[in-house]
């Protein structure tokens, strides 16, 4: 089976695109995985280390051909608030839950979760379901991808990750 061994970022993309893959945000963070393009090309993703693939990147096959990466639409919550301060407060509450989030200029996007939607509404924000590609923030720790993090310290401090502070 032909292998894809490197990634070309969308800003330096050049070459023959022979197929495309459509991946959700979880599947865009991989190192090794059998894949099949929309056009039927089967190949093995075989990167040296786990890598976050962005919408518009390309996987480079051993023979130099390219497979386009497309971010799949996902069911998300679009979270908004009446003003900037209220949105920052909602972001703090979401961050305390340690879930992947995409932060825009006037909205935050998270994976659809009816419990978190009710939490946001209870705090005065809006949480509307939307279908769109999910591009969560990368983490604060080196080499980490969105939604896949390890703190790098003993996690013993006096708060619960399940409780939502009021």
UniProtKB/TrEMBL annotation:
Residues 136-145 have a biased composition (Low complexity). InterPro entries: UreE, UreE_C_dom, UreE_N, UreE_N_sf. It is found in: Cytoplasm. The keyword Cytoplasm applies. Pfam families: UreE_C, UreE_N. Residues 3-67 form the UreE urease accessory N-terminal domain. Keywords: Chaperone, Cytoplasm, Nickel. Residues 135-166 are annotated as: Disordered. Residues 148-159 have a biased composition (Basic residues). Involved in urease metallocenter assembly. Binds nickel. Probably functions as a nickel donor during metallocenter assembly. Belongs to the UreE family. This is Urease accessory protein UreE.
């Amino acid at each position: 089976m032909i292998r894809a061994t490197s990634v070309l970022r969308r800003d330096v993309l050049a070459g023959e695109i022979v197929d495309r893959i459509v991946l959700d945000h979880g599947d865009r963070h991989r190192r090794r995985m059998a894949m099949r393009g929309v056009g039927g090309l089967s190949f093995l993703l075989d990167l040296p280390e786990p890598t976050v693939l962005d919408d518009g990147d390309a996987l480079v096959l051993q023979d130099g051909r390219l497979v386009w990466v497309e971010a799949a639409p996902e069911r998300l919550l679009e979270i908004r608030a009446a003003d900037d301060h209220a949105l920052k407060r909602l972001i703090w509450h979401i961050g305390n839950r340690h879930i992947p989030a995409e932060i825009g200029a006037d909205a935050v996007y998270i994976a659809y979760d009816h419990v978190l939607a009710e939490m946001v509404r209870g705090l005065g924000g809006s949480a509307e379901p939307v279908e769109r590609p999910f591009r969560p923030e990368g983490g604060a720790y080196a080499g980490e991808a969105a939604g896949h993090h390890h703190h790098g310290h003993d996690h013993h401090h006096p708060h619960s990750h399940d409780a939502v502070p009021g």
